[in-house]
Amino acid sequence: MTLPTPESWHAALHRLQRDGIPHALATQVTSAGSTPREPGARMVITEEAIFDTLGGGTFEWQTISAARDYLYHQRYGLHLEAFSLGGRSGQCCGGFVNILLEVFPGSEAHVAIFGAGHVGREIVNLSAPLPWQLHWYDSRSDIFSEQTSQQSRLSCHTLGDVHRTVAELPPRTHALVLTHSHDQDYALITALIERDDVASIGLIGSDSKWSSFQGRLQREGHDAGKIERVRSPIGRIHATKLNNKTPYAIAMTVVTELLWLTDKPTSPETRGLEPNAVRALVGDTKTTQS
C-alpha cells in the first residue's frame, strides 16, 4: 500500500491544482459509532501518491482504491462512498463512515505549441491563467527564458526529432504549429496528421503558405481527410481575416479559438450529488449529532 508523504493535504491540494495534475480530495463528511477519525478529516490522492490520512486501516485503502479507479476512468466530479467498518471494511471498530470524493481532472486540455517566436510567447502568456497543460517546443535550445520556463502547467522542450516528439504527445492534444522555419512547420504537419488521436491541428501563415502545403501533401499521397484536419491560418475566427497583425492580436484570436475547441459539455457527474445522496447525508448527520 502507498504510504502518505510528509506534505499536508492542503499544501498538496494547492500544488496539484496549480500544476494541473489529476487528483482526488477525500473528505470524511459523517460518522457514527467508533471510527478512526472524526468528520472533517481529509486526504489527497493521486495515481502515485497520497497526502495525509483518514485514519488508516482497510477503509482508507478502499477509499484510495476507489479514488484511483475514478481517476483512471476519468470519472471526474463528486462521488459518495459509504463504509460500514465492520462490514465492507472488516475493521474491529465497527462504525459507519461516509466519504465524499472530489475528483479533479487537473488540466482541462493539453496544448502543444511548436515555436517560441513572438506569437508563441504571447500565446503562452495569454494561456497562463487557463486550466491547460502547455507543452512548448523550439529547436533553439537557448530561446526559453528562466522566468517563462518556471510558469506553472508549462513544460519547455528543445525540438529535435519531429516524428518522435509528435508520437510522444498526450492523446487529445491541441497542436499549434508556428515555428521560424517553413520546412520544420511542414515536417510537423506531416507527423501530426498521421495521429488520429490529436484533438486539433493549427498552422500559422498565409493562405498561399497553406495552399503550397496542401499541394505538397497531396502529391506525397497523404489522405485528403487527414489534410482537412489542419486549420490554417489559425486564429481566423468565424472565417474573418484579422487586420491587426501584431503578435499579441494574433495570439488573442488563437487562444479564443482554442477556448471554443476545448469547451466540453458538462458531465452529469460534475453537477453534484444526487438529491437522495444529499438527503441521506443530512439524515446521517442529524442522527449522529442527536
UniProtKB/TrEMBL annotation:
NCBIfam families in the record: xanthine_xdhC (TIGR02964)
Species whose genome carries this gene: Vreelandella janggokensis
Limits of the XdhC- CoxI domain: 17-74
Domain XdhC Rossmann as annotated: residue spans: 111-258
Pfam families registered for this protein in UniProt: XdhC_C, XdhC_CoxI
Domain of life: Bacteria
Protein name: Xanthine dehydrogenase accessory protein XdhC
